[in-house]
Amino acid sequence: MSQTYRFDTRVVHSGRRQPLPNFYPTVPPIYLTTTFAYPEYRETDAVFFHQRDGYVYSRYGTPTHRALESAVADLEGGDVAFCTASGMAAVHLALLAAGVGRDVPVLLAQDVYGSSLTLATRVLARLGVPVYTVDVGDMTAVRRQLDTVRPGVVFFEVISNPLTKVADVPTLIEWAHAVGARVVVDNTFTTPFLFRPLEHGADFVVHSATKYLSGHGDVLAGVVVTRKEYASQVETLLRQVGSTLGPMEAWLVYRGLKTLALRFPRQCENAQRIATFLQTHPRVARVYYPGLSDHPDHERATHLFGGRYYGAIVAFEIAGAGQEEVFRFLDSLKLCLPVTTLGDIYTTVLYPARSSHHYLTDEEREALGIGLGLVRLSAGIENGEDLIEDLAHALAQVAS
Ligand code: PLP
């Protein structure tokens, strides 16, 4: 900085701004800057008006965001991705970009993640969006709803929470497209390691990147992946709504993502072992895991996911248990963490009746098959034997 400037100017501007040299770091830096400048203003102008590639303002993205977005787009088989401040921001963005509106109904699977459902029924509905739900496990009901509602947007998850039903994704997409709807698929539980909805014709894929994509329980984030034709819609909406991810968070997800192909298969293997163990346990009334041959969607899961892995979420009913017994079970676990998330390298357990599905009445919850004795487990990467011993110990405490 030139010594001709006075001290209080130099203190603000010194040490600043070098054009990028002709090398690159192995890992993308975290761009903690709100703006970007160019040697000539005409370049700023060209970037601002999309005439050349670059960055001007961090709400529109930074190289850190771009690194994460291009990685997820690539893994999902999409053209572009946009990262958001949370999974819910991604769901919101995708539904808006897909075109929900005053006269454009949205049809949701009835068992989508609770906040996705309430985003539709409480927020979008209040703005005049006609909101309908359907059991995507009942294809007769789906046919009927598609024909009567004529939705503009259809939204569902590949593996349902917590009962691990597996949707017939290719048929749902085909039928939705046939009535002119755009399809948004939440691929959080499956990850692109197991399943890639865009390859089956989905228009938008969303993730809570808080879960498997980042994987370490240290960041909240979301991603929307789509094809070229919807890119500018998503980008413009993200700029306007401003649910942009912070650069630190983008970097954390990007780093976590690198080990997805190591973490996720291990988590699936642990889930399979745990489900098999629970299936024969006298204190367990029922186990829900698509990798078990008696799961109603086992064949479909085998077909869609390739027959080796079935996801890392297991739900089970503790026989005859109510809230007291489930709390005792959760308090007796020494290794599995009783926390309201999934997809981490740590094994986590959750009590749906008092967390993800607390907003439902007892009757509504029971109608969905989510009883007071139901527990959901998200398998981590620990040694499977240790996890089984922990679960066996906690189940024994419920019995006593
Ligand atoms: N979609 C699914 C399937 C989820 O499980 C969650 C959160 O648990 C979300 C979306 C929302 O994600 P976030 O908590 O990152 O906003």
Descriptive overview:
The chain has helices spanning 7-13, 41-48, 63-76, 87-98, 114-124, 139-149, 169-178, 191-194, 228-241, 247-257, 260-279, 298-305, 323-332, 362-367, 384-399, and strands at 80-84, 106-109, 131-134, 153-157, 182-186, 204-208, 222-226, 284-288, 313-318, 337-338, 348-350, 374-378. It is α/β, with parallel strands linked by helices and 400 residues long. It folds into two domains: 7-30 and 61-257, Type I PLP-dependent aspartate aminotransferase-like (Major domain) (Aspartate Aminotransferase, domain 2); 260-399, Alpha-Beta Complex (Aspartate Aminotransferase, domain 1). The protein has a seven-stranded mixed β-sheet, with helices on both faces. Helix 8 (191-194) links the parallel strand 5 and strand 6. The model has no long low-confidence stretch (mean pLDDT 95). Bound molecules: pyridoxal-5'-phosphate. Pyridoxal-5'-phosphate binds at residues 86-88, 91, 113, 115-116, 157, 161, 186, 188-189, 208, 210, 220, 222.
- Could you name the ranges where pLDDT drops below 50 across 5 or more consecutive residues? none
Strand order of the largest sheet: 1-7-6-5-4-2-3
CATH topology term of the largest domain: Aspartate Aminotransferase, domain 2
User: CATH-wise, what's the superfamily of the largest domain?
Assistant: Type I PLP-dependent aspartate aminotransferase-like (Major domain)
Structural class: alpha/beta
- N-to-C series of helices and strands: HHHEHEHEHEHEHEEHHHEHEHEEHEH
Calculate the terminal CA-CA distance, rounded to whole Å. Answer: 74 Å
Helical coverage, percent range: 40-55%
Q: What is the CATH-assigned architecture of the largest domain?
A: 3-Layer(aba) Sandwich
Which small-molecule ligands are present, each listed once? Answer: pyridoxal-5'-phosphate
Kindly provide the name of the CATH class of the largest domain. Answer: Alpha Beta
Q: Work out the strand percent.
A: 5-15%
Shape: globular
Report on the biggest sheet: 7 strands, mixed
Annotation, overall tally of beta strands:
12
- Radius of gyration (Å): 23 Å
In total, the number of domains comes to 2
* Count of alpha/pi helices: 15
